[in-house]
Design brief:
The complex is a heterodimer of chains A (401) and B (112).
Chain A: H1 4-30, H2 33-54, H3 60-75, H4 80-88, H5 97-107, H6 114-125, H7 130-137, H8 141-157, H9 170-189, H10 200-216, H11 221-235, H12 260-277, H13 282-295, H14 304-317, H15 321-335, H16 337-345, H17 355-367, H18 371-384, H19 388-400
Chain B: E1 2-10, H1 11-19, H2 22-38, E2 43-48, E3 56-59, E4 66-69, E5 77-86, H3 90-98, E6 105-110
Antiparallel strand pairs in B: 1-5, 1-6, 2-5, 3-4
Chain lengths: 401, 112
């Protein structure tokens, strides 16, 4: 392997760290989200062109600032008040902690559609280009560019404010931000598109964003819960696919490949958070469930009773048919396949189009020796999933019968 | 910034209102009155429309104007009134809309 991918990774990290900061302070300064974002994007594109040739400068943040400022003075001729503000600006710009938070809350404003929130967050907070976002989601670049343009226009024209919401609105608005990060993670972890099984770049962006939120909002336990959840999943990443890129189920994973240090660190973060706040929420509870799995020395030693309790708590704070499906899997190990299958009967109408519902049903039916029904359920799951690794696993299973 | 809140009625809401007793309906109207009083400093103008069966639509894009009975889209959701408000930004407009006590849908649009 050449050095090139590593170099690109370093570059991506530097851009991610500094583009968002610069965007945050420029939006604050100009009070115009769209104009500020254009300047940063220009600077980032220049950096991505020149740094691979000239090397990453000693102070990448100062470099990006200088390029964005010069560009601003050049292009904002008609907006003389912006130019005046930019002209007065000197390095280092005051990078307020709240500036970055404001940026995130604006990108994830509920008046924007979810795809727009996601594209805007990746672009503005993480500094990704439209082309990179398009590649990550396997959609045309023009679609992403249009989504971002529309979202920026809506921010300006509909008067979406650039501010951290007040205390009484914070829970709902933070929920919106966390949902965006969680979706990014999910899409990266197990892609819903046919082109590839996972998109590790998105997982990395999601982890970075979650860590940023934990830093910026230390009083919000759910941000820490989400970070722990992402890290616990990532710690087991090496065992999820075999040498040929095939998906390996939890029961069959080689646990010696799990990163025990990372699991211990994420579990410690979760415990610390739970003790300090005593406010369990959906992300902390999901992370606790994953921690139970991650701490078990073998599949047989999994503490299913504890997991079942956690699922009950999770369903209490966040009822969802998908969570009930996962709970049924835990129930299978505590009370047997019959009890689990009975639970699934209730979920059929809600999860009719959800491939994992049918795959789980197939497993339970097979446990009960009802092989014909199991086969039909697996076939149904296969028709519903677009993920190539899931398809391959189901095909393998159908081949065994 | 100026925004218009468009109040949208659903069929279900209309039926609920229909089924109300006299006292209950009076309560509902009073809640609306209180909402207008509470936000009087922000409301610059408001209008309540007559029921949708009184609507007439004219289409001007087909040569001669075409006049038809009914609203411009036939649907279960119809605009029943407007309030124009003057607030700082969308978040404040959303806050005003959140406490609206009557019909179940409000569309919020900035005034150009």
């Amino acid at each position: 392997m050449s050095d090139a991918p590593d170099g690109r990774e370093v570059l991506a990290r530097v851009v991610r760290e500094h583009a968002g900061r610069l965007a945050a302070s420029l939006v604050s300064l100009l009070g115009d989200f769209s104009a500020a974002e254009d300047l940063v994007q220009d600077a980032v594109e220049t950096a991505l062109r020149r740094w691979p040739v000239e090397g990453v400068p000693d102070r990448p943040d100062a470099w990006l600032f200088t390029v964005a400022r010069r560009r601003g003075l050049d292009v904002l001729r008609r907006e003389s008040n912006y130019r005046a503000k930019l002209a007065r600006l000197t390095w280092p710009v005051p990078a307020e902690r709240d500036d970055r938070l404001r940026l995130i809350f604006t990108c994830c404003h509920p008046a924007l559609s979810r795809p727009a929130q996601i594209a805007l967050t990746l672009r503005v907070v993480c500094g990704l280009s439209a082309a990179q976002i398009a590649a990550a989601f396997v959609v045309p670049e023009s679609t992403v560019a249009q989504r971002i343009t529309r979202a920026k226009r809506k921010i300006g024209e509909a008067g979406i404010p650039y501010r951290v919401p007040p205390e009484e609105e914070l829970p709902g608005r933070l929920g919106e931000v966390l949902a965006v990060v969680y979706l990014l993670f999910n899409e990266g972890y197990l892609s819903t598109t046919a082109e590839r099984a996972q998109a590790p770049d998105l997982v990395e962006e999601a982890e970075w964003l979650a860590a940023l939120l934990v830093n910026l909002m230390p009083k919000e336990p759910e941000a820490a819960g989400l970070l722990a959840l992402i890290r616990l999943h990532r710690a087991r990443g090496a065992a999820r696919f075999d040498g040929r890129g095939r998906l390996v189920l939890l029961a069959d994973q080689d646990r010696s490949l799990w990163d025990r240090d990372a699991i211990a660190a994420a579990t410690a973060l979760l415990t610390r958070t739970a003790r300090a706040h005593r406010r369990p929420g959906p992300y902390q509870l999901q992370a606790a469930i994953v921690a139970c799995h991650a701490e078990a020395a073998s599949f047989a030693e999994t503490d299913w009773a504890q997991i079942l309790v956690l699922y009950d708590m999770l369903l209490h704070v966040a009822p969802s048919p998908v969570t009930r499906l996962h709970r049924a899997v835990a129930l299978r190990h505590v009370r047997g396949p019959e009890a689990a299958l009975a639970e699934l009967d209730d979920l059929g109408s809600a999860l009719e189009r959800y491939p994992l519902f049918h795959a789980t049903r197939a497993e339970l039916l097979r446990d009960l020796g009802r092989d014909d029904e199991a086969r039909r359920a697996d076939e149904r799951a296969l028709r519903l999933t677009a993920n190539p690794a899931q398809q391959e696993l189901l095909e393998r299973r159908l081949g065994w019968d | 910034m100026k925004y218009v809140l468009m109040f949208v009625e659903t069929e279900q809401f209309a039926q609920k209102l229909e089924a109300m007793g006299e006292l209950e309906r009076q309560d509902a109207y009073e809640a609306v009155g209180r909402w207008f009083a509470e936000h009087a400093d922000k409301i610059t103008h408001h209008t309540h429309l007559a029921p949708v069966h009184t609507a007439t639509t004219m289409r001007l894009d087909q040569g001669e104007p075409v006049v038809t009975d009914g609203p411009f889209v036939e649907g279960k959701e119809v605009v029943s009134g407007f309030a124009e408000i003057e607030v700082a930004d969308l978040d404040e407009a959303l806050r005003v809309a959140r406490s609206w006590p009557a019909c179940p849908i409000v569309e919020i649009r900035p005034v150009a």
